[in-house]
């Protein structure tokens, strides 16, 4: 089911929680609302659910307008054909697994084939054998699966998820993420997922809505947001990397950016920008090539930190005679304090304006 938001606003006293906001989520899309605490993402989710009422604007689910300030429409939550999963599971402790899932159907007075529908939902989350247990007899992951089953038992067109994995440990979170993705895609639901975990949003989403201070800064695929952030805020929030200020120039016929007084970073796209005018570049760690051997078009740096992540090492280095610190990856340990020679894959440098969105290069 398609979701269309038009000119939505929400204020709490002096706080403008959601500023004028409009976007569309396509049928069957998995879209994450990503941003720091207080950016408005949970308020937006609650307005979609009908728990909060927007001050103005319009929300439509498919062909049905579920809220309109102009038309004086405010459809109650139970009539919106949505499922919702909360961060704290919100299970009734005195009810069995079966009754917790059945509660969603009973509340909507959908008693026909109730047992078959509940057991089907429990099978989909691999909990059918535990239908008689109580929440306190389940692990955290099992409790979360009960919450998922309750959300999908009435086969909603839309599922809303408010940081549903944040209470789980890292390994269990990965397992639940895969289960959730499979469920949503298999059932053809449109999903809106609230998170402040950028790696979670990148892994799960068809598109990501990056929010800050009640506004949408960028809405795009994970790949576009990572490689082509529209401004410094998005670049810093999504993925590791460095924001480096440089001045486009030419040295010995080679286009690049001057960093400080001595360091020159070769980059073909520097030729697209006015020479002598500072720009900001986004440099991701996978574009930083570090070597102990000197060669052409490399600048000198010194390793400041190194961490072992299992499949690789991750470190930071400082470019000599500058304040520039870059993140880098390595297949082997390079001890801190080691002098290294650095080359950037110049075709993967993304240039930002010094304050705000991306430069137009065409």
TrEMBL record:
Pfam families: ABC_tran, TOBE_2
GO CC annotation terms, alphabetical: ATP-binding cassette (ABC) transporter complex, substrate-binding subunit-containing; maltose transport complex
Keyword field: ATP-binding, Nucleotide-binding, Transport
Catalytic activity: a quaternary ammonium(out) + ATP + H2O = a quaternary ammonium(in) + ADP + phosphate + H(+)
One GO MF term: ATP binding
Signal peptide coordinates: none
Classification via Gene3D superfamilies: 2.40.50.100, Nucleic acid-binding proteins (2.40.50.140), P-loop containing nucleotide triphosphate hydrolases (3.40.50.300)
InterPro entries per the UniProt record, alphabetical: AAA+_ATPase, ABC_transporter-like_ATP-bd, ABC_transporter-like_CS, ABC_transpr_MalK/UgpC-like, Mo/tungstate-bd_C_term_dom, NA-bd_OB-fold, P-loop_NTPase, Transp-assoc_OB_typ2
PROSITE patterns the record matches: ABC_TRANSPORTER_1, ABC_TRANSPORTER_2
Presence of the UniProt keyword ATP-binding in the record: yes
Annotated ABC transporter domain residues: 3-238
Domain of life, source organism: Bacteria
Presence of keyword Transport: yes
Enzyme class: translocase
EC number(s) recorded for this UniProt protein: 7.6.2.9
Subunit structure: The complex is composed of two ATP-binding proteins (OpuCA), two transmembrane proteins (OpuCB and OpuCD) and a solute-binding protein (OpuCC).
Name of protein: Carnitine transport ATP-binding protein OpuCA
Protein species of origin: Evansella caseinilytica
């Amino acid at each position: 089911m398609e979701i269309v938001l038009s000119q939505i606003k929400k204020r709490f006293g002096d706080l403008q929680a959601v500023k004028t906001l409009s976007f569309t989520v396509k049928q069957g899309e998995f879209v994450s609302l990503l941003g720091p605490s207080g950016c408005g993402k949970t308020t937006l989710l609650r307005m979609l659910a009908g728990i909060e009422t927007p001050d103005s604007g319009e929300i439509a689910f498919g062909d049905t307008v579920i809220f309109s300030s102009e038309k004086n429409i405010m459809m109650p939550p139970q009539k919106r054909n949505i499922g919702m999963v909360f961060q704290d599971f919100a299970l009734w402790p005195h009810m069995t697994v079966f009754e917790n899932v059945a509660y969603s159907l009973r509340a909507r007075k959908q008693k026909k084939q109730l047992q078959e529908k509940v057991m089907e939902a429990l099978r989909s989350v691999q909990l059918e054998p535990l239908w008689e247990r109580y929440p306190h007899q389940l692990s955290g992951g099992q409790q979360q699966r009960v919450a998922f089953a309750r959300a999908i038992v009435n086969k909603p067109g839309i599922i809303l998820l408010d940081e549903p994995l944040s209470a789980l440990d890292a390994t269990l979170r990965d397992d639940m993420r895969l289960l959730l993705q499979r469920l949503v895609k298999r059932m053809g639901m449109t999903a809106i997922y609230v998170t402040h975990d950028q790696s979670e949003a990148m892994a799960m989403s068809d598109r990501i809505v990056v929010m800050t201070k009640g506004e949408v800064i960028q809405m795009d695929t994970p790949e576009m947001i990572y490689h082509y952030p529209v401004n410094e805020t998005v670049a810093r929030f999504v993925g590791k990397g460095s924001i480096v200020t440089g001045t486009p120039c030419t040295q010995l016929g080679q286009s690049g950016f001057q960093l400080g007084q001595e360091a020159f970073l070769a980059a073909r796209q520097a030729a697209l920008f006015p020479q002598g005018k500072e720009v900001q570049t986004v440099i991701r760690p996978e574009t930083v090539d570090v070597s102990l051997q000197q060669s052409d078009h490399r600048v000198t740096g010194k390793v400041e930190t190194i961490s072992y992540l299992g499949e690789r090492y991750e470190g930071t280095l400082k470019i000599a005679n500058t304040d520039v610190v870059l993140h880098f990856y390595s297949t082997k340990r390079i001890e801190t304090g080691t002098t290294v020679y650095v080359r950037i894959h110049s075709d993967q440098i993304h240039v930002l304006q010094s304050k705000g969105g991306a430069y137009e290069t065409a």
